[in-house]
C-alpha cells in the first residue's frame, strides 16, 4: 500500500525520531534520503551525529544523499517493497532557494532561482506518484515572530506553502512537539493501515 506521511514540528521537537520510528515499524527495508549538505563545521558535526545514530539503531537502512533533485530520488527509490524516509524538506527547500549563491536584498521582492519551481513541481509530482510508503520530515518555521528582512520572510512563506502542499498529498500528517506526535490527518497506528 502506498501511504505518504508528513511528520513536522519545530527544532528539536522529536520529529526525526518519530519519522524513523514510523519507517522502522513498517517492517520493510528503508531508503533514507538525506537532504543536508556539509556547508560548515557545525553542519558537518550534525550530519556525522545523524549518521552515527542511524547506524546504531538502523544499520540495515540504505542512505541516499540528495540536496536538490529530491523528486528524482523519490521516483527512483520508491517501490511497493520499501519505505522512503526523507529528512528533511526544510533543508531541501533551503538548498533550492539559495542554489544560485547570490546576495539577496533586505527589502523588496525576491526572485526564486530558476531551479526552484521546476524541482518543487517535480518533487510534488513524484510524491503523488510514489509506488510505496514515504515518510517526510519538515520543520514548522512559521509559528514564531515574523522574521525581519525580506529573505527570512521569503523562506518562512515558502516553507509554509511547501508544508501545505505536501500535507494535501499525504494520507497521514503528524505534528510533533516535545517528542509527542499529534495526529492531524490519517489513522493512528502502523503505517500499513489506512484511515
Automatic annotation (TrEMBL):
Q: Which Pfam families match?
A: CobU (PF02283)
Pathway(s) annotated for this protein in UniProt: Cofactor biosynthesis; adenosylcobalamin biosynthesis; adenosylcobalamin from cob(II)yrinate a,c-diamide: step 5/7; Cofactor biosynthesis; adenosylcobalamin biosynthesis; adenosylcobalamin from cob(II)yrinate a,c-diamide: step 6/7
Superkingdom classification of source:
Bacteria
This entry's Enzyme Commission designation comes to: 2.7.1.156, 2.7.7.62
Q: What's one GO MF term for it?
A: cobinamide phosphate guanylyltransferase activity
Q: Its catalytic activity?
A: adenosylcob(III)inamide + GTP = adenosylcob(III)inamide phosphate + GDP + H(+); adenosylcob(III)inamide + ATP = adenosylcob(III)inamide phosphate + ADP + H(+); adenosylcob(III)inamide phosphate + GTP + H(+) = adenosylcob(III)inamide-GDP + diphosphate
Report if keyword Glycoprotein is assigned.
no
Q: Which InterPro entries does the UniProt record give?
A: CobU/CobP, P-loop_NTPase
Membership in a protein family: Belongs to the CobU/CobP family.
**PANTHER family on file:** BIFUNCTIONAL ADENOSYLCOBALAMIN BIOSYNTHESIS PROTEIN COBU, PTHR34848
Q: What does this protein do?
A: Catalyzes ATP-dependent phosphorylation of adenosylcobinamide and addition of GMP to adenosylcobinamide phosphate.
Q: What is this protein called?
A: Bifunctional adenosylcobalamin biosynthesis protein
* Species of the source: Herbaspirillum rhizosphaerae
Lineage runs:
Bacteria, Pseudomonadati, Pseudomonadota, Betaproteobacteria, Burkholderiales
